[in-house]
Specification:
The chain is of the alpha/beta class. 39% of the residues lie in helices and 25% in strands. The longest helix has 26 residues. The structure holds adenosine-5'-diphosphate and magnesium ion.
Length: 313
């Protein structure tokens, strides 16, 4: 049966440096093309941690050397990272599809994701982004850039912290749906999307980072996907992860997932948002399911041979 799916790609699918990204994306598109060859309609969502960090850092450094260059605000940096990563995936995926004789186009949609201006995370920003600084460097940055909050990051020096609000809506959802309906492969919500709040009938950029797994889940709900596939560095989700009694999970219900979350089995900022996004998506409508597995095992996972499947219940 033809499936409509959202594919959320983690950091390992993209690499860190330019050369790494090149090599990683070459491998990533092979897995994606395999899914497309099986007849799935898909939207690709990706992370952007290292890339958005490098963009911010580059402008920050340039602004010190040349006063006419301004530091880039976070929203613009995210937009740049969407263009950059989208371009890399587009270029490689187009080539891979041609080689397989699949006649489909690939397009990146610069995506704004609406968040609630009253989201509690705005009151207490905790998500560290970018490089570490000494206390005095951090103080200088905070003085130079109004609105930038610097905090000590568990012994790793001082870093900028931003809010990580939950996604509420996707501004470009109709464009994404039209492209899908036209049979095109879409890359959207890169880096979780550019966070915006609705204000006075318009949109205003928010100093925040949206988790890409939550953004992928929200987009999957909105475009009425059957399946959310989260491709990360592990083949399955585990309980007692990294401990002697570690156990890999092949299938769990949203209710079981809640129980494991309450018992603290999933690390904050890595596996926890994936399992939370999964539970939310499968509960949003009957018949929706989630697969969490590695990029390498994506096809086997979809065939039910590996990965962790999350279902309603
Ligand atoms: P991504 O870039 O794909 O979002 P993350 O590093 O954020 O990847 O999250 C995936 C990582 O979560 C895995 O590589 C693993 O080290 C870690 N992890 C934490 N808790 C668990 C768990 N319970 N089961 C499996 N992996 C876990
Ligand atoms: Mg992650």
């Amino acid at each position: 049966m033809k499936k409509r799916m959202v594919l959320a790609l983690g950091g390992n699918a993209l690499g860190g440096s330019l050369a790494e990204q090149q090599a990683a994306v070459e491998g990533t598109v092979k897995a994606i093309a395999g899914l497309i060859a099986e007849g799935s309609d898909l939207v690709i969502v990706h992370g952007n941690g290292p890339q958005v960090g490098n963009i911010s850092l580059a402008f920050e450094a340039a602004s010190k050397a040349e006063p006419s260059v301004e530091p880039m605000p976070l929203d613009v940096s995210v937009a740049m990272s969407q263009g950059w990563i989208g371009f890399d995936i587009q270029r490689c995926l187009c080539g891979e599809l041609r080689r397989r004789g699949i006649n489909k186009s690939v397009a990146t949609v610069i995506t704004q994701v609406v968040v609630d201006g009253n989201d509690t995370s705005f009151k207490e920003p905790t998500k560290p982004i970018g490089p570490s600084y000494t206390e005095s460097e951090a103080a200088a940055i905070a003085r130079r850039r109004p609105g930038v909050i610097m905090r000590e990051d568990s012994g790793r020096g001082f870093r900028q912290v931003v809010a990580s609000p939950k996604p509420v809506d996707v501004v470009e959802k109709d464009v994404i749906a039209s492209l899908m309906a036209g049979g095109h492969v879409v890359i959207a919500c890169g880096g979780g999307g550019i966070p915006v709040v609705r204000k006075n009938g318009g949109l205003e950029a928010a100093p925040a980072v949206i988790d890409k797994d939550f953004a992928g889940g929200k987009l999957a709900e909105i475009i009425d996907a059957d399946l959310l596939v989260i491709l990360t560095a592990v083949e399955k989700v585990a309980i007692n992860f990294g401990k002697p009694d570690q156990r890999w999970i092949s299938e769990m219900t949203a209710g079981e997932a809640d129980g494991y979350i309450a018992q603290g089995h999933f690390a904050k900022g890595s596996m926890l948002p994936k399992v939370q996004a999964a539970a939310q998506f499968v509960r949003s409508k009957q018949g929706r399911s989630v697969l969490i597995t590695s990029l390498e095992r994506a096809l086997d996972g979809l065939a039910g041979k590996t990965g962790t499947k999350i279902i309603d219940g």
